[in-house]
Design brief:
heterodimer; A: alpha/beta; Rossmann fold; Hypothetical Protein Yjia, Chain: A,domain 2; 7-stranded antiparallel β-sheet; 8 helices; B: 551 residues; alpha/beta; 9-stranded parallel β-sheet; 8-stranded mixed β-sheet; 24 strands; globular
C-alpha cells in the first residue's frame, strides 16, 4: 500500500473511519466535527438511523443532507457510496476534507478502494476503531472474527477506544496483540474516541498547512494533551523517498508527518506519512517551509531527537 | 348467491389439477367475481345458478397459477438490452433468443445492435453474459472495442455483479487512467483497466454511461409490464419482487400499473433492509402494508446476509471454498439481524432472509432462536431464501424454529458443473439445494428462479428439482430429487405458504382467487424429464383470461 495512492493538488483528502458496531465511530465523527473550527468537513455516513450527528451541532436538515454549524455537512449514502461521492464533488463551497463512516460490517479497505476510483478524491488514511473491552474477544468469536481481523488489517491507525473501561492487564495485552497482528497500523489509545482532528488532516481552517505555526521543539496539543507536534529540518539535496521510508517505519513512533523536501534534482517534493502509509510526490511551486517536516506523535514517544539522528536532520528550534 | 352483475363462468377442461387434496381432479371449474366457486362436475357446479359455459380450454389442462416465490421485476426492464446469455431464453414478446455458444457470437449480436442504432452516442448494452461457459480466458476492453470504438459498450454478467465494458465506456467514466488501485478493477500490462468491472462500486461509475440507469433497473412502468408478460408466458399468476427499496414514487407507480384492468400478475414486493435501522424498516413496512392492493402486496422485509457461491462472496462454514478462496462477505451483523427479527416478530411482519452459504444459514437460525425466546410467535413463516448449502441438521432446526425454505432449485442446471470443481466441491454439491432433505425433515418448501439471475419459469425450476441435471448432462445429488407432484406443490401451494397466501392462492379451490395456469399437456402424465417441455397456453388471473399468444 505504501506510496500507492498519489495525491493530486485538487483532490479532496479522504479519511475512512471503520470498526465494528459500538466501537465509537459516530462518537469520533462528532468529536472531530466539534474541532472543525472553520475547516469545512464533509461526513458521509451509511444511514441517519440513530442520528449520527449530535443535535447541538445541527443547523438544518434537508433529506439526506444535514448542515452543521461552521460550514460542515453530513450526508447519508445508503448502499451507494459512488453516487454520494460524485454528488459531493458538486457541493459548493467545496469541503476541505471528507470523512467516510463505514458501516460496522463493512471492510474499510474496500471503501478506500472505491474512493480511489474517482479522480477528485484521494485517500488520506484509514482509521479503524476498536472497543478495548471487546475487540479481542470479538476477533476470536464465531461469525465475525475474520471480518474484524480484515477491518483491523487495513488500518493506518487503530484507535483503541474506551480505554477507561477494561482492567490494566487487558489493555496492555490487547495493545500487544494489535501491534503484533497488525504491524501496518499505528496504534493509539483513547477514551470516548477523543482523537485530535490534527491527526487526520494537515489543513486548518484557512487551508494553511499547520506547520507554519509550529515554532517550538515539541508543542503539546492544547486541546488534546497526550499528543505533541514537532518539526524536523533538512538541508537541500536529501532523498525524499528515504526520509519517507524512515518516517513511515514502525520504529519512528509517528502517527503522521508532512513536509517539503528539496531533493538533489532541485525539485521540491511533498513527503507525507500516516502510520505505515507514505507517499512522495512532486510539489507545486510556492509551497511554504521547504526543508521542514512536521511530525505528530504521542507524547511518550521520544520522537524528534531520535529521528533527527537517524535522518541527519535537525530539530527545529527558534 | 346475491345479485350478480357478472355471470358465472364455468370452464370445461381436459383435466383440472386442483392441488386441493380433498378434491384433487376435476373437469369443470366455476369462476365468479375473480374467485373460484369451485371445481367439480358440471352438475355440481350448476347449482350456483345461471352460468355461461366456456369451452375454450376443453383440450387444455388447468392447474393453479404458478407462484414465483423469489424473483425481481427487473427482469422485465433488462429486455431493453441485448440478451447475451449462453442459454436459450424467451423475451416478453415471445421471441426465443438462441443462447450464444462462443464469445464471437456474443460480440456479433452486440455489433448487430450497434448497426441498428441511428446516432453515434447511444451505448450498446447487453445482459446475462456468462463467460464461465467460454473457458478460462478473461475478456478485455479490446474484445468489446470490436463492437464499437465510438460508443460506450457495457455487458452485464448473468450474476448481476460483474460487467465488461469497452475502451470508450472506461474513458467516458474517467477510468481510463493509470494508478487505479481497486480489487474490482483489474489492470492490464499497460497499467490501464482491462474493462472488467467487479462489484457494485466498480460498476456504478460506468452504469449511467452504458445505459444501465438505476431507475430503469429498479423496475419502471414498461419494465413492470414486460415482467408481467413473462409471467403470463410461464403460467405465473403471482410473483415476488423480492428486494425493492420501495420509495414512495416507486410504490405509486407500481400501485397504478398493477391496478390497470389488464395487468395480469399479482406482485408481492418486499422492502429490502439496507443502510437503515431495523426499527425504520419495520415502521416503513407497517405503513406500506396499509397501501397493499389485490394486485400489489406490500408489508414484508427482505434481508441479505451474505453474497453468492459462484461469486465466492457467500459465507461458508469450514472447510470453506473448494478452491481455497477466502470466505465471503457479511452484509449485516448478528446484532442487527436479531433486532430485526425481534421487532418483526413483535409487529407480525414477515421476514425473508437471503442466505447462500451454510455459515449464513447458521447465523439466520441462531439469531432466530434468540429472538423467539423473547417474542414467541405461533406462525411467523420467516423464509430462508436460497439457503443453498443447508445440511440436514440445519433443516431440522428450521422446522423447530418455524422457518420455511425457498430453495434455489435450478442452480445445479446453470452452475452445477462449476460447483463440483470450484466453489463447494462434490459432496456439498450433492446436498446443495436439498429439496428432498427439506421435505423429509418437515420444512415447508418452495423453489425459485431468482429471475433475472436465471429465467423466470416455475415449471423449468420444478424440472430442475425433479431431475438435478447440469447443463452438461451430469446428475448431481440424485438422492435430493423430488417427485413431479412434490415439485408441482412447491411452485403452487408451497410458494403461497411462504408468502402467507396459501389460504388465498395456490390451489383451485372454492373461495380462492381464480388464478390458473393453462397448460397444453398434463405434467403428471409425462416423465419427470419432460416437465420443462409442458406447453403453456397462458393464464387465468383473478378470473381474467390472458393468452400468451396475445399478450
Amino acid at each position: 500500500m505504501n506510496g500507492a495512492v498519489r495525491n493530486t493538488p485538487s483532490a479532496m483528502p479522504v479519511t475512512v473511519v471503520g470498526g465494528y458496531l459500538g466501537a465509537g465511530k459516530t462518537t469520533l465523527v462528532n468529536h472531530l466535527l466539534r474541532q472543525a473550527n472553520g475547516l469545512r468537513l464533509a461526513v458521509l455516513v451509511n444511514d441517519f438511523g440513530d442520528l449520527p450527528i449530535d443535535a447541538e451541532l445541527i443547523e438544518s436538515q434537508d433529506g439526506n443532507v444535514i448542515n452543521i454549524s461552521g460550514g460542515c455537512v453530513c450526508c447519508s449514502f445508503g448502499s451507494d457510496l459512488i453516487t454520494a461521492l460524485m454528488d459531493l464533488r458538486n457541493l459548493e463551497p467545496r469541503p476541505d476534507h471528507l470523512l467516510i463512516e463505514a458501516s460496522g460490517v463493512a471492510l474499510p479497505g474496500a471503501i478506500a478502494e472505491s474512493v480511489s476510483l474517482i479522480q477528485d478524491f484521494s485517500l488520506d488514511s484509514i482509521v479503524v476503531l476498536a472497543d478495548a473491552e471487546t475487540v479481542y474477544r470479538r476477533s476470536r468469536q464465531r461469525y465475525f472474527a475474520d471480518t474484524i481481523n480484515r477491518q483491523l488489517s487495513c488500518a493506518d491507525l487503530i484507535v483503541l477506544n474506551k480505554c477507561d473501561l477494561p482492567g490494566r492487564n487487558d489493555l496492555s495485552e490487547t495493545q500487544a496483540w494489535l501491534r503484533n497482528d497488525f504491524p501496518d497500523a499505528a496504534c493509539l489509545r483513547t477514551q470516548r474516541a477523543e482523537l485530535p482532528l490534527r491527526l487526520l488532516t494537515d489543513k486548518d481552517a484557512s487551508g494553511i498547512v499547520a506547520e507554519t505555526r509550529v515554532n517550538a521543539r515539541t508543542s503539546p496539543f492544547s486541546d488534546h494533551p497526550g499528543y505533541v507536534t514537532s518539526v524536523l529540518e533538512f538541508p537541500k539535496g536529501r532523498d525524499p523517498n528515504a526520509i519517507a521510508e524512515v518516517l513511515a517505519h514502525e520504529d519512528s513512533g509517528l502517527i503522521r508527518a508532512k513536509g517539503y523536501i528539496e531533493a538533489a534534482d532541485g525539485e521540491v517534493y511533498t513527503v507525507q506519512t500516516v502510520g505505515r502509509r507514505s507517499e512522495v510526490r512532486r510539489s507545486h511551486a510556492g509551497v511554504g517551509s521547504v526543508g521542514q517536516v512536521v511530525l505528530i506523535a504521542p507524547e511518550w514517544q521520544v520522537v524528534p531527537a531520535k529521528l533527527a539522528d537517524v535522518l541527519g536532520g535537525r530539530v527545529h528550534l527558534d | 348467491m346475491q345479485v350478480q352483475e357478472e355471470k358465472i363462468t364455468i370452464y370445461r377442461a381436459r383435466r383440472i389439477l386442483t392441488m386441493n387434496a380433498s378434491n384433487p381432479i376435476a373437469e369443470y371449474v366455476a369462476v365468479h367475481g375473480g374467485r373460484f366457486l369451485g371445481a367439480g362436475s358440471l352438475e355440481e357446479l350448476s347449482g350456483w345458478g345461471e352460468f355461461q359455459l366456456d369451452e375454450r380450454f376443453a383440450d387444455k389442462v388447468l392447474a393453479p397459477g404458478f407462484v414465483e416465490g423469489h424473483s425481481h421485476t427487473m427482469e422485465g426492464a433488462l429486455w431493453r438490452y441485448v440478451y447475451c446469455g449462453f442459454f436459450d431464453r424467451v423475451d416478453p414478446d415471445g421471441n426465443a433468443w438462441p443462447g450464444l455458444k462462443t464469445v464471437q457470437d456474443v460480440l456479433a449480436r452486440l455489433a448487430a445492435r450497434d448497426r441498428e442504432l441511428k446516432d453515434d452516442q447511444s451505448p450498446v448494452s447487453g445482459w446475462a453474459f456468462d463467460p464461465i461457459h467460454y473457458g478460462d480466458e478473461r475478456l478485455s476492453r479490446a474484445d468489446f472495442d470490436t463492437v464499437s470504438r465510438v460508443r460506450p459498450v457495457g455487458v452485464l454478467h448473468a450474476s448481476g455483479h460483474l460487467m465488461n465494458v469497452n475502451t470508450k465506456a472506461l474513458e467516458t467514466a474517467g477510468l481510463l487512467r493509470p494508478g487505479i488501485n481497486h480489487s474490482g478493477v483489474p489492470v492490464g500490462d499497460d497499467g490501464l483497466p482491462t474493462g472488467e468491472l467487479r462489484g457494485p462500486d466498480a460498476m456504478m461509475l460506468v452504469n449511467s454511461h452504458v445505459g444501465f440507469d438505476r431507475a430503469l433497473l429498479a423496475g419502471d412502468e414498461h419494465g413492470l409490464r414486460q415482467f408481467a408478460r413473462l409471467c403470463v408466458r410461464t403460467g405465473t399468476t403471482t410473483a415476488t419482487d423480492l428486494a425493492n427499496p420501495l420509495p414512495p414514487e416507486t410504490v405509486g407507480t407500481m400501485l397504478r400499473v398493477t391496478g390497470e384492468k389488464d395487468f395480469p400478475t399479482r406482485i408481492v414486493s418486499l422492502k429490502r433492509f439496507a443502510a437503515m435501522k431495523p426499527a425504520e424498516v419495520i415502521d416503513d413496512v407497517l405503513e406500506l402494508r396499509e397501501q397493499s392492493s389485490n394486485q400489489l402486496r406490500l408489508g414484508m422485509v427482505k434481508v441479505v446476509l451474505d453474497g453468492s457461491m459462484q461469486g465466492f462472496t457467500a459465507r461458508l462454514r469450514q472447510p470453506g471454498y473448494f478452491n481455497g478462496a477466502p470466505n465471503g462477505l457479511w452484509y449485516v451483523s448478528p446484532e442487527q439481524l436479531q433486532e430485526l427479527y425481534e421487532l418483526a416478530l413483535l409487529h407480525d411482519v414477515q421476514v425473508h432472509i437471503h442466505n447462500n452459504g451454510d455459515e449464513a444459514t447458521d447465523l439466520a437460525l441462531d439469531m432466530m432462536e434468540l429472538a423467539l425466546r423473547k417474542h414467541p410467535h405461533p406462525d411467523h413463516r420467516f423464509t430462508l431464501q436460497h439457503t443453498q448449502l443447508a445440511d440436514a441438521a440445519q433443516y431440522r432446526r428450521m422446522r423447530k424454529l418455524g422457518f420455511c425454505a425457498n430453495v434455489f432449485a435450478n442452480h445445479h442446471y446453470f452452475w452445477g458443473d462449476h460447483h463440483l470443481t470450484k466453489t463447494v466441491g462434490p459432496e456439498r454439491a450433492m446436498r446443495m439445494n436439498g429439496c428432498r432433505t427439506a421435505l423429509r425433515e418437515g420444512v415447508p418448501l418452495a423453489i425459485h428462479s431468482d429471475a433475472p439471475v436465471t429465467p423466470l419459469g416455475p415449471l423449468f425450476t420444478a424440472w430442475c428439482a425433479a431431475n438435478r441435471w447440469t447443463k452438461s448432462g451430469k446428475t448431481i445429488g440424485a438422492d435430493e430429487r423430488i417427485s413431479v407432484a412434490e415439485a408441482f406443490y412447491a411452485i403452487t401451494l408451497g410458494a403461497s405458504y411462504t408468502l402467507k397466501m396459501d389460504g388465498e392462492i395456490g390451489s383451485i379451490e372454492i373461495g380462492k382467487r381464480a388464478d390458473m395456469a393453462v397448460l397444453k399437456d398434463d405434467p403428471f402424465e409425462g416423465r419427470p424429464e419432460d416437465l420443462k417441455d409442458v406447453g403453456i397456453w397462458g393464464v387465468v388471473q383473478g378470473g381474467r383470461v390472458f393468452a400468451a399468444e396475445a399478450i
